[in-house]
UniProtKB/TrEMBL annotation:
Keywords: Cytoplasm, Protein biosynthesis. The lineage of its organism: Bacteria, Pseudomonadati, Pseudomonadota, Betaproteobacteria, Burkholderiales. This is Ribosome-recycling factor. Belongs to the RRF family. The keyword Protein biosynthesis applies. GO terms for cellular component: cytosol. Residues 21-184 form the Ribosome recycling factor domain. CDD domains: RRF (cd00520).
Length: 186
């Protein structure tokens, strides 16, 4: 493994950490409805767990209501039950051939809890990025010990990895600030 491979591997892993954070933040509910909050819900489809998006079409009816249109009519009650049993605290209702999922307005207290959750997710992502930095630096030190890289190369690469880490931590902070603003907006 070369110095460039170590840096490239670290950057790819840090990018994955950012993408994971982005998907986790998308699940955090704000006062407005968006279909992304239902993405992780699994529905029992003929005995096998299937993502909700695989058995139904998700649309926004209005700013606070998500419409779930199943591809098969007999899936209505199964979809409604899966949404009700999820950890989102939503209360769907069947309306003809459509499951309506109203998203209740958040109280001030609940918004503050959401902000804490967002900050917790961000801290987990920062820890992951720092662990990736540590792993990369250990690989660099091992390369010096094995005499496949010079100490100057190791120091230079270590500085580049630190700059990469700082960039990703700044990206995480920016994402959290945006989500926090979105959650606190009434």
């Amino acid at each position: 493994m070369s110095l460039a491979d170590v840096k490239k591997n670290a950057q790819e892993r840090m990018t994955k950490s950012i993408e994971t954070l982005r998907s986790d933040l998308a699940k955090v509910r704000t006062g407005r409805a968006h279909t992304g909050i239902l993405d992780h819900i699994m529905v029992d489809y003929y005995g096998s767990p299937t993502p909700l998006t695989g058995v139904a079409n998700l649309t926004l009816i209005d700013a606070r209501t998500i419409g779930v249109q199943p591809y098969e009519k007999k899936m209505l009650s199964t979809i409604e039950k899966a949404i009700r049993d999820s950890d989102l605290g939503l209360n769907p209702s069947t309306f003809g051939e459509l499951v309506r999922v109203p998203t209740p307005a958040l109280t001030e207290e609940r918004r503050k809890e959401m902000v804490k959750l967002v900050k917790s997710e961000a801290e987990d992502a920062k820890i992951a990025v720092r662990n990736i930095r540590r792993d990369a630096n250990e690989q660099l030190k091992k390369m010096v010990k094995d005499k496949t890289a010079s100490e100057d190369d190791e120091r230079r690469s270590s500085d580049e990895i630190q700059k990469l880490t700082d960039k990703f931590v700044a990206d995480i902070d920016k994402m959290v600030a945006e989500k926090e603003k979105e959650v606190l907006t009434v």
